[in-house]
């Protein structure tokens, strides 16, 4: 696509969100990135949270964590450029070790991934021997390597059910754990909070949780929902399952980033509010101009916002920043991620 073609497409989608002068500049960057991408035999994967101009111009594939890891596992390109955060790029490397995996910004982390260490997991396993460990993909490769199976927000319930056991350790997101415990009919305990829990405290159908939280989703409150509904009684509210169970219960729908996008596409509400990273509302509106999205944009993910077109261009030019996972860690983490990819989702209605 020429600069002019990209500019025309971006203008069509983003004229309400991004000023013209910026669209021209971004179209030039995107065109150079797309040229280099072909020259270097690279694939660009873009998470749904990417800023609108990037999201609508350079990814070969866009999606949620699960979709992007499935694509990373199958690609035949030499280079994977991951426009997302580090744990996502690491998952791509775990699944495709022979590829060069690049992340455009070194600092793109995640508060959940920073909220637990491999040693924390080893201590929990020692405290609850034989209890399977389900780990959210928003974790380091070292933590995945200590786990039996991974999950994402789109398949967490299916993964827990697939184990067919009463008691599971579910790490590290407190709120996702609480939401999954409710959906799977489990009582939840937090040994790090009570300090003394051990096998004796386990009752039937228990989930053992951890105390990490997403710094973005933990900020949404039931009061926010009440205020918005008062002002816009016809609003349909969607919450990511990293929000608190109270916020999820007060919302109309909860799902992964892609599940929320699909839900908005398939429904016909007068207006929507997404309780998640704000760029996603802009991205949905750009592809579905007939949808009316309210915005709560004071809450942003600083890590996802590290990824820019400028840095993606430099990533391809300089082959930076290369994501590496030590082989001994990778093979153990691979088992947990691959086992997750084998879980068959329950047919949704
Ligand atoms: P999804 O897997 O739903 O895209 O979520 C990733 C994430 O980091 C949400 O904050
Ligand atoms: Fe991590 Fe939260 Fe940002 Fe997602 S939104 S990448 S969970 S900090």
Tell me what you see in this structure.
This protein is an alpha/beta fold and 349 residues long. It folds into three domains: 3-108 and 304-318, Rossmann fold; 113-213 and 327-341, Rossmann fold; 217-294, NadA-like (Rossmann fold, 3-Layer(aba) Sandwich), CATH 3.40.50.10800. It has 16 helices and 13 strands. The protein has helices at 3-14, 20-39, 52-55, 65-74, 86-95, 118-127, 141-145, 156-162, 174-183, 191-194, 222-231, 245-250, 257-266, 279-287, 309-318, 327-341; strands at 42-47, 61-63, 79-83, 100-102, 133-136, 149-151, 168-171, 187-189, 206-208, 235-239, 253-254, 271-275, 293-294. The strands form three sheets. A five-stranded parallel β-sheet has the order 6-5-7-9-8, sandwiched between helices. The protein starts with a helix and ends in an 8-residue tail after the last helix. The mean pLDDT is 95. 1,3-dihydroxyacetonephosphate is lined by residues 48, 64-65, 138, 152-153, 214, 240, 242, 256-257.
Features of this protein?
4-stranded parallel sheet, 349 residues, 16 helices, Rossmann fold, binds 1,3-dihydroxyacetonephosphate, binds iron/sulfur cluster, alpha/beta, 5-stranded parallel sheet, 3 domains
